[in-house]
Amino acid sequence: MKENMLLYAGIIVLGLSVMLNQNNTVILQLGSVSVRANIADSRPELEKGLSGIASLPANTGLWFVFDTSDYHGIWMKDMKFAIDIAWIDDQYRIVHTQHNVAPETYPTVFRPPVPARYVLEVPAGSLLF
Fold this sequence. Notes:
Shape: globular
Order of helices and strands: EEEEHEEEE
CATH class: Mainly Beta
Structural class: mainly beta
């Protein structure tokens, strides 16, 4: 799937742009903030997400790449820190955000109100919109 991603996609909505790197990461430009995110696109990576990780450095995250657009749910199973979540459609438009989602919310599943193809998870407080 990584081979099929565009090397660059400029986004007008909220100033999001995505650049694919060679080392299984993307660089996302969110307004004036750059985020380097690891790519999760295999079934095991998508299921695990950030579970079990102690924390993330500032300006880093996880970029979920799903095969199709859908109401992809995110939960906080085995999470150790709060995150901000952004759901992004297949045109790279941010369609929904959830801020400061704490580990204690598990087993609640968070979903976007419209289908999305990608999800970005970053440390809580990173998404300032």
